[in-house]
Amino acid sequence: MKKIIIVSSLSLVVIMMYSFSRAEKKPSGDILIPEGYRNWTHVKTAVNNPAFASHSGFHHIYANAKALEGYKTGQFADGAIIVFDVLESLPQKNGDIYEGKRKLIDVMVKNNSQFNETGGWGYEEFIYKDSLTTKALHPTKEQCFNCHNTRKANSFIFSSYRG
Questions:
Q1: d(CA 124, CA 63)
Q2: Looking at residue 69, which CATH number applies to its domain?
Q3: Which range of residues forms the domain containing residue 101?
Q4: How far apart are the C-alpha atoms of 147 and 55, rounded to whole Å?
Q5: Does any domain span residue 120?
């Protein structure tokens, strides 16, 4: 009987340790890459200079319906989602530039109660190591918001919609 209690207690400790370690690795606010975002409204595309390293290449920005309304009115409601999709740029011999592999995806989610300290926006970045795997970086307030805070007068958004 004593062995069963000890084994049960050890099992409980292992389960609790596993649960705590998993909880620490969850993205802030459980922000994920939205399925089908490339079918949302395309806000704009830009090609950025290679001097910007990880953010160089093609920048495609997509907005769900609530974010599109925010672009039009300047007021982004809870539930607005903006996806920043960055693909490498590949120069060709004829001078054209083509898209290469995906480099990263940044996701912004508007939820005033959950992300009150960052202007109502939550941020997540997914780095692509190859075409099949991603690594969520779980950016801190300083990594995303400090930059976006410079755009406070524009609802913390860098892009604009010219629909």
A1: 15
A2: 3.50.70.20
A3: 28-154
A4: 14
A5: yes
Residue with the two structure tokens 């409601």: 77
Residues 151 and 62 sit within 8 Å (Cβ to Cβ): no
Task: Look at residue 59 in the predicted model and tell me its pLDDT.
Answer: 94
- Would the pTM of this model clear 0.85, i.e. be above it? no
Sign of CA dihedral 66, 71, 77, 80: positive
Q: How many CB atoms lie within 10 A of CB 101?
A: 12
Contact between 29 and 122 (Cβ < 8 Å): yes
Domain annotation covers residue 9: no
CB-based contact 57:88 (threshold 8 Å) = yes
Angle value at C-alpha 103, between 99 and 108, nearest 5 degrees: 110
Whether 101 contacts 88, CB under 8 Å: yes
Q: Would residue 10 count as lying in a domain?
A: no
Distances from the Cα of 124 to the Cα of 6, 23, 44, 143, angstroms: 42, 16, 20, 10
Domain count, the chain: 1
Q: Tell me the per-residue pLDDT of 67-84, one tens digit each, with 9 for 90 and over.
A: 999 999 999 999 999 999
Asked if residue 94 belongs to a domain, the reply is: yes
Is residue 161 helix, strand or coil? Answer: coil
Q: If you search the block for the tokens 């160089």, which residue do you land on?
A: 56
Helix (H, G, I), strand (E, B) or coil at 89: strand
